[in-house]
């Protein structure tokens, strides 16, 4: 937040004129005038999206999710709630899965972002995308990119030995079990209810015992 | 094509493509994030700007004034539309409340204004500067308090058969129990969204809507423009479950905003607004009375339900299945409707049955226990093969008994123990069963099918795919009929320029829309045969060729041809009761100390006519089972009875099942073809899976704990003080 000082707004001023106008330009503290016509505060940001460097100038209020969808037209990343409650906007940032609606784009200067479009294409599907098709791990398709990004990340997290809430022993390596996958995937809501099939798809990709997952 | 006699053998019966578990043809687009949903069409209508909806902060009353000064002066703002400057607006008969309020407010978060700005951030910021001065009125928000004033709905009179009161009074074994279900939300993953663009007086909406032709008509009615001036495009829909059956505020406000701004407008309802701005499944209060002889045969069955809605609204038809599901010579079903000033109640997946069976199938479990009968056997004893109130009317197919018996065998039902007696470590374990029942409605549906020069078959119909698998079963139907592989078929859906289909609702879409495609393909086959000088009656379409009387020609020889037809259903749907059936089996664990409830196993055995694509049909059923488990265990819109709104209006407050809540689910489809239903011999399956499953969960909880909780959802706080004593 290096630019805060440039904006030179007191906390009292923010409260007095409202959050929107506070973003605009310096105003004397306690100013009561309606917000003047002015351009929004923008910042330059560079992202490495799916291996390509993207130099952007964005409204500082714009989320990473909206930069992907509205500025870059990478609409595979979905907006289901815009509040970090549904997981439809899951992408990888710096190798870790995040809800892209919960961070501002300008917080990701220089970050490597991988979206569903970066995992595979209709012509060249990622193994997880292919497994979702094979196991019918989706219905309406709206949560699907987020589910797939999470599913890829979950298998990597288990492989990396990162424990979860259901891992019995913190010192032992977590295994690809139904319980581990379900727990770690629980931030990705699927209202169509494809959960059972999603776990089958993940088990397939992980080379896990699907019969064991089903038990 | 009129469908008025039982279907004979037809090309669908070949089952080369139909009936095979088939990957969805839209799968590569959906899994790669390249299927474009409504808000994502940056490829159309250049110059799009953003709309943001302002919702009412009161539930009932009047707008004294709206001050737009600050909002209009905010950066990037292009236009603001309120009811005061929207011009005259109509209201479709399918909308209970107005989609743009003012000066009167009918419910909380009813839309008051749309702010249009260059960017989303600007529109949102400016919307927060709209100052509304309200005169709060007195509203009615408490269903229980409203019950005494509830009235019989005009078009849903009480139904009586025999002498219910007399037979119930005389019954040897009786149950008289009351159940409640709460308001529930569709909570589909894609928020309602629309891009609107005007060209002169013609409007195009890229939107998310289950019923294209309704959307055309209702948009036209609302905006006061001719129906032919409205073009609706909705090829991908991120879930609906009934919540996108109707034209909603997103469509109307995008259109009004676009007209005012002179630019195409894209607009989505924010997640926190959806729960109170749009529709929901209304809460019910239900009373069930069942009277039996010692033999377990039902002699009297009565089901009453109370629900509420805005003035001019409709009841939740929770008693409907009780008219048909079980035998019994003396019957009563009745509904009462209160006026409530909560947001609009309307259809959600299996409206009526989903709530009604949560009570009825709970009551059947209680009654079986009173009789000392196995709950499976009690249902079997009371099976009926005819409409109980019109015994001349048989069910076209009814395999409920087989669903239950096969399910019991497969699930290991015989191992079920006495209530509260089975332990697995700290978990009390129980099994529950319930019948699934949902009618098979059939609807007029049209399609256009084209043979291209290169042999590709193109199907066009305004049918929608809301996750149901319409693209694939329609493609399979055309492939089967035209004798080509599925990958030679292109399916185009969800555009009002295409022939009008049944649309997606009431689990009628799959059977009806494929029957429409069947009809169009019959016509195209005739045109091709004639073009090739073959006899349309005997020509065989297979392997990309047409064969007749020793002659064989490639389809492509016929050149480009197009045919269009409509399937229309007639008296068969009245002479026979067409319904779908299932048996739900659920095992739960209830933590002996905390009351935490975990679903351990779920099985549904379904009989729903020919299953066109077992892969996507199974997904429909498991998805509905998931939603039903949510209804049983967690879903409840909490009503603020002082201020009149649903408090938990987002996806953190309104809890729906997540991965960790749902075990592996099993579905078995019984072999069934129903020649009464359509040439496809299929029936609906999209809603069957949610019917009864909630009661199966509740019955399993009883079997695990010995506790009956008749108020859904069954959360652990309702168990805690009644859990079996720890030894």
From TrEMBL, chain A:
<dbReference type="Pfam" id="PF01799">
    <property type="entry name" value="Fer2_2"/>
</dbReference>
<dbReference type="InterPro" id="IPR006058">
    <property type="entry name" value="2Fe2S_fd_BS"/>
</dbReference>
<dbReference type="InterPro" id="IPR006311">
    <property type="entry name" value="TAT_signal"/>
</dbReference>
<protein>
    <recommendedName>
        <fullName>Aldehyde oxidoreductase iron-sulfur-binding subunit PaoA</fullName>
        <ecNumber>1.2.99.6</ecNumber>
    </recommendedName>
</protein>
<feature type="signal peptide">
    <location>
        <begin position="1"/>
        <end position="31"/>
    </location>
</feature>
<dbReference type="InterPro" id="IPR036010">
    <property type="entry name" value="2Fe-2S_ferredoxin-like_sf"/>
</dbReference>
<dbReference type="GO" id="GO:0051537">
    <property type="term" value="F:2 iron, 2 sulfur cluster binding"/>
</dbReference>
<feature type="domain" description="2Fe-2S ferredoxin-type">
    <location>
        <begin position="43"/>
        <end position="119"/>
    </location>
</feature>
<dbReference type="InterPro" id="IPR001041">
    <property type="entry name" value="2Fe-2S_ferredoxin-type"/>
</dbReference>
<keyword id="KW-0408">Iron</keyword>
<keyword id="KW-0001">2Fe-2S</keyword>
<keyword id="KW-0479">Metal-binding</keyword>
<keyword id="KW-0411">Iron-sulfur</keyword>
<comment type="function">
    <text>Oxidizes aldehydes to the corresponding carboxylic acids with a preference for aromatic aldehydes. It might play a role in the detoxification of aldehydes to avoid cell damage.</text>
</comment>
<keyword id="KW-0732">Signal</keyword>
<keyword id="KW-0560">Oxidoreductase</keyword>
<dbReference type="Pfam" id="PF00111">
    <property type="entry name" value="Fer2"/>
</dbReference>
<dbReference type="InterPro" id="IPR002888">
    <property type="entry name" value="2Fe-2S-bd"/>
</dbReference>
<dbReference type="InterPro" id="IPR012675">
    <property type="entry name" value="Beta-grasp_dom_sf"/>
</dbReference>
<keyword id="KW-0574">Periplasm</keyword>
<dbReference type="GO" id="GO:0047770">
    <property type="term" value="F:carboxylate reductase activity"/>
</dbReference>
<dbReference type="GO" id="GO:0042597">
    <property type="term" value="C:periplasmic space"/>
</dbReference>
UniProtKB/TrEMBL annotation, chain B:
<dbReference type="InterPro" id="IPR036856">
    <property type="entry name" value="Ald_Oxase/Xan_DH_a/b_sf"/>
</dbReference>
<dbReference type="InterPro" id="IPR049648">
    <property type="entry name" value="PaoC-like"/>
</dbReference>
<dbReference type="Pfam" id="PF01315">
    <property type="entry name" value="Ald_Xan_dh_C"/>
</dbReference>
<dbReference type="Pfam" id="PF20256">
    <property type="entry name" value="MoCoBD_2"/>
</dbReference>
<dbReference type="InterPro" id="IPR016208">
    <property type="entry name" value="Ald_Oxase/xanthine_DH-like"/>
</dbReference>
<dbReference type="InterPro" id="IPR000674">
    <property type="entry name" value="Ald_Oxase/Xan_DH_a/b"/>
</dbReference>
<dbReference type="GO" id="GO:0016491">
    <property type="term" value="F:oxidoreductase activity"/>
</dbReference>
<dbReference type="Pfam" id="PF02738">
    <property type="entry name" value="MoCoBD_1"/>
</dbReference>
<feature type="domain" description="Aldehyde oxidase/xanthine dehydrogenase a/b hammerhead">
    <location>
        <begin position="32"/>
        <end position="138"/>
    </location>
</feature>
<dbReference type="InterPro" id="IPR037165">
    <property type="entry name" value="AldOxase/xan_DH_Mopterin-bd_sf"/>
</dbReference>
<dbReference type="InterPro" id="IPR046867">
    <property type="entry name" value="AldOxase/xan_DH_MoCoBD2"/>
</dbReference>
<dbReference type="GO" id="GO:0005506">
    <property type="term" value="F:iron ion binding"/>
</dbReference>
<protein>
    <submittedName>
        <fullName>Oxidoreductase</fullName>
    </submittedName>
</protein>
<dbReference type="InterPro" id="IPR008274">
    <property type="entry name" value="AldOxase/xan_DH_MoCoBD1"/>
</dbReference>
């Amino acid at each position: 937040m290096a630019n805060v000082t440039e904006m030179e707004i007191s906390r009292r001023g923010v409260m007095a004129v409202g959050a929107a106008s506070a973003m605009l330009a310096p105003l004397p503290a306690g100013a009561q005038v309606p917000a003047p016509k002015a351009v929004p505060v923008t910042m330059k940001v560079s992202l490495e999206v799916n291996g390509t460097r993207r130099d952007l100038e964005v409204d500082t209020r714009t989320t990473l999710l909206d930069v992907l969808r509205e500025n870059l037209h990478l609409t595979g990343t979905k907006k289901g709630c815009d509040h970090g409650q549904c997981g439809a906007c899951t992408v990888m940032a710096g190798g870790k899965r995040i809800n892209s609606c919960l961070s501002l784009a300008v917080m990701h200067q220089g970050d490597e972002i991988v979206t569903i479009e970066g995992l595979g294409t209709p012509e060249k599907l990622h193994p997880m995308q292919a497994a979702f098709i094979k196991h019918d791990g989706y219905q309406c398709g709206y949560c699907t990119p987020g589910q797939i990004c999470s599913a890829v990340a979950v298998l990597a997290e288990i492989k990396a030995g990162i424990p979860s809430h259901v891992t019995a022993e913190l010192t032992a390596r977590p295994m690809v079990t139904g319980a581990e996958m379900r727990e770690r995937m629980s931030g990705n809501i699927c209202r169509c209810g494809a959960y059972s099939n999603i776990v089958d798809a993940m088990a397939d990709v992980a080379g896990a015992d699907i019969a064991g997952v089903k038990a | 094509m009129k469908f008025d006699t039982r279907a004979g053998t037809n090309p669908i019966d070949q089952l080369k493509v139909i009936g095979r578990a088939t990957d969805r043809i839209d799968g590569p687009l959906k899994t790669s994030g390249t299927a474009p949903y409504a808000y994502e069409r940056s490829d159309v209508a250049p110059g799009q700007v953003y709309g943001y909806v302002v919702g009412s902060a009161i539930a009932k009353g009047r707008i004294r004034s709206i001050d737009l000064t600050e909002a209009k002066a905010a950066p990037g703002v292009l236009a603001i539309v309120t009811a005061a400057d929207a011009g005259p607006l109509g209201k479709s008969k399918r909308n209970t409340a107005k989609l743009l309020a003012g000066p009167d407010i009918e419910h909380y978060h009813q839309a008051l204004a749309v702010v249009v700005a260059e960017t989303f951030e600007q529109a949102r910021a400016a919307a927060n500067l709209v100052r509304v001065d309200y005169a709060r009125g007195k509203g009615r928000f408490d269903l229980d308090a409203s019950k005494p004033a509830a009235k019989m709905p005009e078009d849903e009179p009480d139904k009586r058969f025999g002498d219910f009161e007399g037979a119930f009074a005389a019954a040897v074994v009786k149950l008289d129990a009351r159940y409640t279900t709460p308001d529930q939300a569709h909570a589909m993953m894609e928020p309602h969204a629309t891009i609107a663009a005007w060209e002169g007086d013609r409007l195009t909406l890229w939107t998310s809507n289950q019923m294209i032709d309704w959307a055309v008509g209702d948009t036209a009615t609302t905006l006061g423009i001719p129906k032919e001036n409205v073009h609706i495009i909705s090829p991908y829909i991120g879930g609906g479950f009934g919540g996108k059956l109707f034209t909603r505020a997103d469509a109307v406000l995008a259109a009004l905003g676009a007209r005012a701004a002179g630019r195409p407008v894209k607009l989505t309802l924010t997640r926190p607004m959806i729960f109170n701005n749009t529709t929901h499944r209304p809460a019910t209060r239900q009373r069930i009375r069942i009277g039996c002889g010692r033999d377990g045969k039902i002699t009297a069955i009565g089901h009453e339900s109370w629900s509420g809605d805005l003035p001019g609204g409709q009841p939740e038809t929770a008693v409907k299945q009780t008219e048909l599901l079980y035998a019994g010579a003396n019957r009563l079903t009745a509904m009462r409707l209160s006026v409530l000033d909560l947001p609009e109640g309307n259809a959600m997946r299996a409206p009526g049955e989903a709530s009604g069976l949560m009570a009825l199938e709970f009551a059947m479990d209680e009654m079986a226990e009173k009789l000392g009968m196995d709950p499976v056997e009690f249902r079997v004893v009371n099976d009926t093969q005819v409409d109980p109130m019109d015994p001349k009317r048989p069910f076209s197919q009814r395999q409920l008994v087989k669903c239950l018996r096969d399910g019991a065998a497969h699930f290991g039902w015989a191992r079920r123990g006495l209530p509260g007696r089975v332990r697995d470590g700290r978990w009390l374990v129980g099994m529950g069963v319930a019948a699934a029942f949902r009618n098979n409605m059939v609807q007029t549906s049209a399609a256009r099918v084209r043979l291209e020069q290169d042999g590709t078959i193109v199907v066009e119909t305004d049918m929608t795919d809301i996750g149901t698998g319409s693209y694939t079963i329609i493609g399979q139907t055309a492939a089967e009929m035209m004798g080509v592989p599925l990958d030679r078929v292109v399916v185009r859906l969800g555009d009002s320029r295409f022939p009008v289909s049944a649309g997606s609702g009431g689990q009628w879409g799959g059977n009806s829309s494929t029957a429409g495609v069947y009809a169009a393909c019959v016509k195209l086959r005739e045109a091709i045969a004639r073009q090739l000088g073959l006899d349309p009656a005997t020509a065989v379409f297979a392997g990309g060729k047409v064969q007749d009387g020793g002659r064989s020609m490639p389809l492509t020889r016929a050149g480009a041809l197009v045919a269009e037809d409509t399937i229309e259903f007639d008296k068969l749907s009245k002479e026979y009761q067409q319904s779908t059936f299932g048996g739900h089996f659920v095992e739960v664990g209830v933590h002996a100390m905390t009351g935490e409830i975990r679903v351990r196993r779920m099985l549904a055995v379904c009989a729903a006519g020919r299953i066109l694509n077992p892969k996507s049909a199974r997904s429909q059923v498991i998805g509905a089972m998931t939603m039903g488990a949510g209804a049983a265990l967690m879903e409840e819109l909490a009503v603020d009875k002082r201020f009149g709104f649903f408090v938990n209006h987002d996806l953190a407050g309104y809890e729906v099942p997540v991965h960790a809540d749902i075990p592996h689910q099993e579905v078995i489809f019984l072999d069934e073809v129903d020649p009464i239903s359509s040439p496809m011999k299929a029936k609906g399956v999209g809603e069957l899976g949610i019917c009864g499953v909630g009661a199966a969960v509740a019955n399993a909880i009883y079997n695990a704990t010995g506790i009956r909780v008749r108020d859904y959802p069954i959360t652990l706080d309702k168990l805690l003080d009644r859990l079996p004593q720890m030894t």
